UniProtKB/TrEMBL annotation:
Gene Ontology CC: one annotated term: endoplasmic reticulum membrane
Alphabetic keyword roster: Ligase, Lipid metabolism
Keyword Lipid metabolism: yes
Protein name per the record: Long-chain-fatty-acid--CoA ligase
Catalysed reaction, written as an equation: tetracosanoate + ATP + CoA = tetracosanoyl-CoA + AMP + diphosphate; a very long-chain fatty acid + ATP + CoA = a very long-chain fatty acyl-CoA + AMP + diphosphate
Alphabetical list of Pfam families matching this protein: AMP-binding (PF00501)
Superkingdom of the source species: Eukaryota
């Protein structure tokens, strides 16, 4: 649905050597790679490991577009090593295989894609290899009014937030059943101290683990003590 915005720029992009990939059925003009046709034609069998295994774990795995808080949005390089390290995120904050993780963050940011989805893939039982993974509940758009109903309906036990989401919940009108849920852990970034206190007072003794990291950085901090 976004191709119409790109199409007028197509000659310039191709002239500059930029590949244009589109997911969705065409037809598309020459020079555009239609991914759906390739996916339909692809084999279900995995290629040999030496084809897809990175030669160097420090090579670029993907680019994450930052939100632009320190300037215009820009693509940050993420290595294979950093991507793999995200598998351990939820275990570091105390989640386990039986948890159900609620995720309503954009999947084009590191928090949603790598810490959220990839983190769920990496959850396992201690001492077991490979990890078994955990249940991830994806919501297309966060809804403060529907959040607790979603938690009850899906059996949610872990919530990944950015600070504003918790503020939206605290600012909602009070309603019956706000403390009748299975949520035990909230993990994320940017939660203000006053909202932190109000969140726990209103919704129950939910453990909060605040983290801080950057797409472009190589250090992450965890507030384990609360």
């Amino acid at each position: 649905e976004l191709f119409g915005s790109v199409e007028p720029l197509l000659p310039t992009l191709l002239e500059d050597g930029v590949s244009v990939w589109v997911l969705g059925r065409g037809p598309y003009p020459p020079g555009v790679v239609a991914l759906q046709e390739l996916l339909d034609a692809a084999s279900d069998q995995l290629e040999p490991e030496d084809v897809w295994e990175p030669r160097d774990m420090n090579e670029t795995c993907l680019y994450i577009f930052t939100s632009g808080t320190t300037g215009l949005p820009k693509a940050a390089r993420v290595s294979h090593l950093k991507s793999v390290m995200c598998l351990n995120f939820y275990e570091l904050v105390g989640a386990s295989r039986g948890d159900v993780v609620y995720l309503a963050l954009p999947l084009y940011h590191m928090a949603g894609a790598l810490l959220g989805v990839v983190g769920c893939l990496g959850i396992g039982e201690r001492g077991r290899d490979p990890p078994a993974g955990s249940t991830c509940v994806l919501r297309e758009k966060f809804s403060a009014s529907q959040f607790w109903d979603d938690c009850r309906a899906e059996g949610v036990t872990v919530f990944q937030y950015i600070g504003e989401l918790c503020r939206y919940l605290v600012n909602q009108p009070q309603r019956p059943g706000e403390r009748q849920h299975g949520l035990r852990l909230a993990v994320g970034s940017g939660l203000r101290p006053d909202v932190w206190k109000s969140f726990q007072q209103r919704f129950g003794p939910i453990r909060i683990v605040e983290t801080y990291g950057m797409s472009e950085g190589n250090v992450t901090l965890f507030n384990y003590t609360g």
